[in-house]
Each structure stands twice: as C-alpha cells, then as structure tokens.
C-alpha cells in the first residue's frame, strides 16, 4: 500500500505531543521487553503492519526471542510468558478492545496482582500510546518494512 501522507511532517506539533507520552512510557520503569510485547500485541489486534514491523525489530533488539514473538498471538496457549507478562497482555487486550467489556473486574484484579498502582497506570498509558500510534499509522498508511531499531527515537530538537 502506498502511504497517504506523512503525518509526522504535516503536523509536527501533534507528533511532538505523542512523543511526550511515548517518552513517559519509555522511561516509566516497566521492563522494555514487556513493553515491546504489549506494543506488538496491540498492533496485532489492530492490524498495524508498520507498528508490527517496528516493534518486532525493537523487541529483538531488546533481546526478545523469535519463538516468543511468533507465538505472541497465541500467548494463552503456551507457557513461554511469565504470569506478569500474561497479566500485561490481558490488560492490553482489554484496553485495546474496550468495546468488548470495558475492562472486566477479573482482568483488573489479575493485573493488580502483578503490578503496583503506579505500574498499572503506566501500563495503561503504554496501551493508550500504542493504540494511538496504530491508528495514525493505519489511517495514513505508514509503509512497513523500512524501520530500523532506534530510528524513531525522539530527536533532540523536539525534546526542547
């Protein structure tokens, strides 16, 4: 598919706001590999090719195994993920599919068993961020395949 427009170029102030949220998420203290699994899972659910390409590469760069990435769509069926990762993935799915039950109490309770209140807020914001990036990338047809790990690190000029 051909890109519709480069939203990063067209609206740099909007992208800067998104980078602000992403910077918080990246530095919130949650494990980078866990965050990449969450980003991958949300991107699978949303069908975002660009983000799947990006986060599979970032996950591998962070030390994630191919097997765990290949089986992520079936995380409930395999024993490759820790209980904390399972709670994060379930939380991610509930927030991404908010129309399917408004985050059931059981999902919240499981997440609270594995995450502090602050961590759970950070995890929720990680899901909010990736869902936002997915929607931008899907809407404007960001082209998958060219991403290299670290390519979208926030530019120094944008950090001011």
Explain briefly what this protein structure is.
It is built from 8 helices and no strands. By secondary structure, it is mainly α. It has a single domain, classed as AhpD-like (Up-down Bundle), CATH 1.20.1290.
Q: What does this protein look like?
A:
The chain has one domain (10-149): AhpD-like. It is 62% helix and 0% strand. The chain contains eight helices and no strands. α3 (32-46) packs antiparallel against α4, α3 packs parallel to α6 (83-96) and α6 packs across α8 (117-139).
At the fourth level of CATH, the homologous superfamily is AhpD-like
The CATH class is Mainly Alpha
Describe the sheet with the most strands.
none
What is the distance, rounded to the nearest whole angstrom, between the alpha carbons of the first and last residues?
Answer: 35 Å
H-E string: HHHHHHHH
| Rough outline | globular
Number of helices: 8
Helix content: 55-70%
Low-confidence stretches: 155-160
> Helices and strands: which structural class?
mainly alpha
The tally of strands reads 0
Which topology does CATH recognise?
AhpD-like
């Amino acid at each position: 598919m051909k890109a519709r427009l480069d939203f990063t170029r067209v609206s740099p102030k909007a992208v800067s706001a998104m980078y602000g949220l992403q910077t918080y998420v990246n530095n919130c203290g949650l494990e980078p590999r866990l965050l990449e699994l969450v980003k991958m899972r949300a991107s699978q659910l949303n069908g975002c090719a660009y983000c799947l390409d990006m986060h599979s590469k970032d996950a591998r760069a962070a030390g994630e195994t191919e097997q765990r990435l290949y089986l992520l769509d079936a995380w409930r069926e395999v024993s490759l993920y820790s209980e904390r990762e399972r709670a994060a993935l379930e939380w991610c799915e509930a927030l991404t599919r908010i129309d399917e039950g408004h985050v059931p109490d059981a999902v919240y309770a499981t997440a609270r068993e594995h995450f502090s209140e602050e961590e759970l807020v950070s995890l929720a914001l990680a899901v909010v961020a990736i869902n936002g990036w997915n929607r931008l990338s899907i809407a404007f047809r960001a082209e998958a395949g060219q991403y290299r790990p670290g390519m979208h690190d926030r530019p120094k000029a944008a950090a001011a």
